[in-house]
Amino acid sequence: MASPTLLSSARETLRRLPLTVFPQPMIPLTLGTFLFAFAGTRWLMGSGNSLSTVAEPNHRSLHKKSTPNGGGLAIVIGILLVEVCQQLLGGSFFPNALALMGFIGIAGISFLDDRRPIRSSIRLAVHLGGALCLVLSGLYVFEIPLPGLLDQPAALGWLAIPLAVVFTVWFTNLYNFMDGMDGFAGGMTVLGFAGCAMLAWAQDDASLALFCAVIAASGGGFLCWNFPPAKIFMGDVAAAPLGYLVAMVAFLGHKHQSLDLWQTLIIFSPFWVDATATLLRRLAKRDRIWEAHRTHGYQRLANAGWGHRKTALAEYGLMLLMLAAAWWFGELEEQGQLTLLFAILLLFLLLWLGVRAVERSYRAVKE
C-alpha cells in the first residue's frame, strides 16, 4: 500500500498543475501535428513514393520482410510546420536560428543517408556541427548537481562545452541505434517527450511543455503505423534529429530550471542505458563498434523468442516506470534522490542479467 507521504506528495503535485491554464495553442497544435504525422506516414507508405525507401531484411536486422522506410520524415516536417506556426504567432520553440539550423542539418544528412549510405565521417561532421549550434546558442550545462554527494553542484569549468558536444552527438547517434525494432523508437518518442512536457508544465514552463507535447504528438501519429507488426520504419531521417532534440530539451529544461537534468536522463534511460552498456560491452570484446549489429538488449530479447510486440510492450512498461521515477525524483530531498538513482542503477543491472537469463533459457529450449 502506498505511504501517506507519497500519496500526499502526488496530490500536491496534481494541485500545482495548471490544469485550466493550457498554453492557448497547445490543443490545436498538438492535435494538428498528430494528424499530420498520421496522414503523412500513411502517404509515405504508398508504393512507389519517391520520398521513402524500402528496408530489405539482412543478417543484422530484426525484420523478416521488405518494409517501407523513412516514415519519420512526417515527424520532422510536422515539427517544422509547427515551428513555422509558432513564429507566425510571435514565438519559437528553438532558442535561435542556429539551433534550428542544427536540427534541419541533421535531418537533411539523415534523409540522404536513408536513400544512399553516406560516409560515417561526413555524418559525424554534421552531427558535430549540430552540437556546436546548440553550444553557440548558449545551451550547455555549466554545473552538474550531484544530489546527496555534494552540497553545491559540481562546476564543469572549461569541460562544459566539450561535454555538451559529446552529450548531443551521443544522443543523436544512440537514438538512431535504438531504432531497430517495431514500435520502439516511436514509443520512446511519445512517452519520453510527453513525460518531459508534463514535468515542464508542472513548473509553468509553457513553451517547453508545448514543444515536448508537439514532438510526442508527432511521434504518436507515426507510431500508429509503426506499432508491431510495423507497416513502415522511422529511418535515420527522424531518429537522429529526435536524439538531437532530447539533448536540446535537456539543456533548455536545465536553463529554465523547469526540468532537472537528472529527470531527463531518467526519462530516456531505457534508450541511453541500453545503448551505452552495449557500446561498453562491445568495446570490452574488441568488436568493430562502427559496424551494424544485433547485440542491444532489446534486440537480444526479440531474438530470444520474445519477438517485436512482447519486447516493445515490456519496454513501454519500463518507460512508464521511468516517467514515474522522474516525477518522484523531483519530489524528494537530496538524499532521497541519491537513493532513487542507485535504485534505478540496480534495476538496470537486474534487467541486464534478466536478458542473459532469457537468452540462456531460449537456447536450452532450442537444443
Description:
The chain is an all-alpha fold and 367 residues long. The protein has one domain. 69% of the residues lie in helices and 3% in strands. It has 13 helices and 4 strands. The protein has helices at residues 4-16, 26-44, 73-88, 97-115, 120-136, 160-177, 184-202, 206-226, 236-256, 261-267, 269-284, 297-331, 334-366; strands spanning 53-55, 67-69, 143-144, 154-155. The strands form 2 sheets. It has a two-stranded antiparallel ribbon. Strands 3-4 form a two-stranded antiparallel sheet. The protein starts with a helix and ends with a helix. Residues 17-22 have low confidence and may be disordered.
Helix/strand layout:
Blueprint: H1 4-16, H2 26-44, E1 53-55, E2 67-69, H3 73-88, H4 97-115, H5 120-136, E3 143-144, E4 154-155, H6 160-177, H7 184-202, H8 206-226, H9 236-256, H10 261-267, H11 269-284, H12 297-331, H13 334-366
Antiparallel strand pairs: 1-2, 3-4
Helix pairs in contact: 2-3, 2-8, 3-8, 4-5, 4-9, 5-6, 6-9, 6-11, 7-8, 7-9, 7-12, 10-12, 11-12, 12-13
